[in-house]
Design brief:
Elements lengths: L1 H29 L3 H13 L5 H14 L3 H15 L11 H5 L11 H17 L3 H10 L4 E4 L10 E4 L4 H13 L3 H14 L9 H6 L2 E7 L4 E4 L6 E4 L2 H4 L6 E4 L2 E3 L11 H6 L8 H22 L5 H18 L12 E7 L4 E8 L7 E9 L5 E6 L8 E2 L3 H9 L1
Parallel strand pairs: 3-11, 10-12
Antiparallel strand pairs: 1-2, 3-8, 4-5, 6-7, 6-9, 9-10
Length: 410
């Protein structure tokens, strides 16, 4: 019993140490030091353990904010390959996909986290004008959802598949089809968006996107957080959208002049709302069953130990088994902390050349970001990523160090 307890303590200690390292990297990201976050996450993202996917998602977010697209692509792709490789015998699996043991409890995220992982991978490709791979990633973000029957059992095999309402991915899919010269499929994708939400019709306008030579991708706010009940057995998400209020619209200026973004400044997605939607939640009835059984074993062991002629060995064994079952039934509260509440897509048409661009939110004072010298081509579309945080208002000069270094190598 003592040896088992020591082993459990050591295991938990090691896990906590690794988790603390990841949490420190997340704190660096939110405190305005994404470079430090990248350096802390790089070794963690190479470890083929239960947090392999999560740490690569975190690394991708930290690299993207620095425009280190190579690092971001590699991280998002490693996470994607593991998520899609379980049970598949494929010679193209990444090293992580091969080495991560399917028997360990690998973080797979909630459905909305998996959709966002595909979105960001697609965004990296889109920023590089690799529209073929971007199309594939955005299509993967539109996977069918599982609509579980509303019954007491909530069995994993008791569901129907429904089409995704992930408008963010559908808009970008339409833009990819435009760049690939498939106008028919582009129109179909944009039509799908308007069927999802008619208020997004201006953003999904075919001509507006076709004529755009500057796409601003703006991450705003903070995504949902996992919470547990009194014994940690059931997870939920907070805050709810109504608790945070309406998402404020962005305001854009180019070279000091306001740009009309009316109609386009509607949020294509609200992750706080998706997290409350059962279709975007993972179902885990095993957790509840283990919790109930574990509680029963603990009570059974306590009863056996309190009996006048009870068997102490049996009592300890029952309690130990119950504690282990309870431990494994706890809700998985790991999450991709860097996710925003929403992502604005702003396709603009501006004169070719270099421009100073500012995105701000008048209804959220102090939330602004400025980039100087963004390069806009006469043909095609340049895409720039803005992660709105109070600590990164800038002004920043284009190109950032990661892009400048790449250009020098070329």
């Amino acid at each position: 019993m003592t040896c088992a307890a020591c082993l459990l303590f050591v295991t938990v200690g090691c896990t906590s140490k690794a988790q603390r390292a990841g949490e420190e990297a997340v704190q660096a990201y939110f405190s305005g030091d994404p470079a430090k976050a990248v350096q802390q996450l790089k070794p963690l993202a190479q470890k083929t353990d239960e947090n392999f996917v999560l740490n690569n998602a975190r690394l991708g977010s930290a690299a993207l904010i620095q425009y280190d697209l190579d690092q971001a692509e590699n991280a998002f792709l490693r996470a994607y390959e593991v998520l899609n490789s379980f049970g598949v015998n494929s010679g193209g699996r990444s090293l992580g996909a091969v080495l991560v043991d399917e028997k360990i409890r690998v973080w797979r995220g909630e459905p909305f986290e998996r959709a966002m992982l595909n979105f960001y991978l697609g965004l990296v490709y889109y920023m590089r004008h690799d529209y073929g791979n971007a199309r594939g990633a955005f299509e993967n973000a539109l996977f069918k959802l599982r609509d579980y029957a509303d019954n007491a059992d909530r069995k994993k095999d008791d569901y129907s598949e429904v089409e995704s309402n992930f408008a963010l991915g559908a808009i970008m899919l339409g833009k990819c089809w435009q760049r690939l010269g498939r106008d028919d499929l582009a129109r179909a994708a944009f039509e799908r968006v308007t069927k999802m939400r008619s208020s997004l019709a201006p953003l999904a306008d075919y001509d507006r996107n076709q004529n755009s030579n500057l796409l601003l991708v703006v991450d705003f706010g903070y995504g949902p957080k996992k919470v547990t009940d009194f014994d940690g057995a059931i997870s939920g998400f907070a805050p709810k959208p109504q608790e945070e209020g309406m998402i404020p619209p962005p305001h854009v200026t180019v070279d000091g002049q306001a740009v009309d973004v009316a109609g386009m400044n509607q949020p294509p997605v609200d992750l706080l709302a998706l997290a409350q939607d059962k279709r975007w939640q993972s179902i885990d009835t095993i957790r509840t069953i283990k919790s109930v059984i574990g509680t029963g074993l603990i009570y059974g062991g306590a009863y056996e130990g309190l009996r006048h002629h009870g068997d102490d060995g049996t009592a300890l064994a029952l309690i130990a088994a119950g504690v282990l079952l309870k431990a494994t039934s706890q809700a998985d509260v790991r999450q991709w902390e860097m996710l925003p509440r929403t992502v604005f897509l702003l396709p603009l048409q501006v004169p070719p050349g270099r421009h100073d661009v500012t995105v701000d939110f008048p209804n959220a004072p102090g939330l602004t970001q400025t980039w100087r010298g963004l390069d806009v081509p006469p043909q095609g579309e340049a895409t720039y990523y803005f992660r709105m945080q109070r600590w990164n208002s800038g002004p920043f000069d284009w190109p950032p160090p990661a892009v400048a270094q790449l250009q020098a190598q070329q």
